[in-house]
């Protein structure tokens, strides 16, 4: 595995600096250059979902957690941090 890739086998998720791959009933490949933002959606105190959002507002669920799944909540935070780190370490990022 490349050093700039985060692989989460149990969640069937691969995060790299240019794309995210999600495996469920299908295989979904999301080009991060075509996404406007990464966000966490909440359903009260019951569920949190990590989304990639396109400029037109279309949201793609990447990973979800429900109440009591503290490890999964930490995992979502880790993925967001990883994606931000990969973005800022990318040579194509123009800098602040």
Explain this structure:
The protein contains 1 helix and 7 strands; from the N terminus they run βββββββα. The chain is of the alpha+beta class and 96 residues long. The protein has a 4-stranded antiparallel β-sheet with strand order 1-2-3-4, covered by helices on one side. Strands 5-6-7 form a 3-stranded antiparallel β-sheet, with helices on one face. β3 and β4 form a beta hairpin. It is globular. The model is unreliable at 91-96 (pLDDT under 50).
Average pLDDT confidence is 77
Specify the helix fraction band.
10-25%
Distance between the amino and carboxyl termini: 30 Å
The coarse overall form would be globular
Please provide the count of β strands: 7
User: How is the largest sheet built, in terms of strand order?
Assistant: 1-2-3-4
The run of helices and strands is EEEEEEEH
Uncertain regions spanning at least 5 consecutive residues: 91-96
Number of helices: 1
- What gyration radius follows from the Cα positions, in whole Å? 13 Å
Taken as a percent bin, the fraction of beta residues is 35-45%
Largest sheet: 4 strands, antiparallel
Assign the structural class, choosing from mainly alpha, mainly beta, alpha/beta, alpha+beta, or little secondary structure.
alpha+beta
Oligomer: single chain
């Amino acid at each position: 595995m490349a050093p700039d890739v985060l692989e989460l086998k149990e969640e069937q998720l691969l995060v790299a600096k240019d794309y995210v791959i999600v495996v469920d009933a299908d295989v979904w490949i999301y080009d991060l250059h075509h996404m406007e933002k990464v966000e966490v959606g909440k359903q009260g105190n019951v569920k949190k979902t990590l989304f990639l959002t396109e400029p037109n507002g279309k949201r793609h669920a990447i990973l979800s957690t429900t109440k009591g799944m503290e490890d999964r909540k930490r995992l979502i935070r880790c993925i967001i941090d990883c994606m931000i780190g990969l973005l800022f370490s990318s040579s194509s990022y123009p800098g602040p």
